[in-house]
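User: For a benchmark we're assembling, each entry needs the component sequences followed by a predicted structure for the full assembly. Here are entry 17's components. Please fill in the structure.
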Amino acid sequence: MSWDRNQMAAIAAREAQDGWYVNLGIGIPTLVSNHIPPGVSVTLQSENGMLGMGPFPFAGEEDADLINAGKQTITELPNSAYFDSATSFAMIRGGKINMAILGAMEVSEEGDLANWMIPGKLVKGMGGAMDLVAGVGRVVVVMDHTNKAGESKVLKRCTLPLTGKAVVDRVITNLGVLDVVPGGLKIVELAEGVSKEQFRSATEAAIVD
Amino acid sequence: MSKVYSDATAALDGLLFDGMMIAAGGFGLCGIPELLIDALRESGVKNLRVASNNAGVDDFGLGLLLQSRQIKKMSSSYVGENAEFMRQYLSGELELEFNPQGTLAERMRAGGAGIPAFFTATGVGTVVAEGKEHQDFDGRTYILERAINADLSIVKAWKADESGNLIFRKTARNFNVPAATCGKVCVVEVEEIVPVGAIPADGIHLPGIYVHRLITGTHQKRIEQRTVRAKETA
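Assistant: Structure for entry 17:
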């Protein structure tokens, strides 16, 4: 047994604290906004220049001037604010964003993150990911524990080009939750029905108790 | 001296030369200077070096200048939506300099603010840092990034007054502000030019000091990823 995408998003949503400013990446992280607990007020940043990102618009109400960092049409909220890209990344680099939740291809036991490039394959670019992991207070990665071939994505060392070195604080996978601590990764929680032995055998990185 | 020109071709007259560096505003297809890009294509100017977060799509935005092989080098953070871009890049016809998005924005901002280079933690320990000067401040390592100073800035805003004061609309502001500031000459296209005084002085997003030439025209404003939600689940 393991968590599905929505369960992983719900686990990640528990990370959010009341009053926080949060940046969500593309993929499973986007689902996190559906699971923010009641009573917790979180303002979402979209790095193309918006705080207070609202849900997708109703059909017929799309606005070409209002998109998120994934270029999808979105809406504004009563507390929304717009700004330019330099200001947007100044708040990211300046440490004003409390948390970023991002997808990943690989994470290492030292908190290195690779999520932008596979050599020899189509290179699309890092977008704002390198800025986010370097500047945001807390970096949480949400990803599948293994790749399609069943190989661990939680590694001793990343094999892919890095997005950032020693930048990840917590990893949430379909098998459980890990914190990056001195000497390796510490298990915080296991998914229902996943034993410690199963978890360890699916993980290449060092797990410390 | 009026900043208002009749159309994009007139506004670019005398500014273009082969091999020039252009800074362009826009994020994806949102807030791109589409009229000026069309006029650049018609001008036939070649070997352009373009700093722009993205490269448009195959048949719109900067993709049009790739199609016509007018661009020699792109400095961008993300180029995923453009098949012709990929083809030219993989075949070696096009140079590509990947910049982290915030580094690209700050390089433009710094260029416009007279700052030749700046230190940032973004990219430390990655390929972006290779060959760049590293320095520690207060126990953290930073890399030195150079400013961008362009020959020409091309920008899209929502409204301008006749003196060039600009306001942008929603997330279409994006790279248009930093791009506008880093060029020797900045040409801006807007949806509407209003009389001086029609935009409250406190509500101006970019003052006219940065704006040298101004045009208005009809914009397509294409949507790249149309996403909606159903009424009943709202």
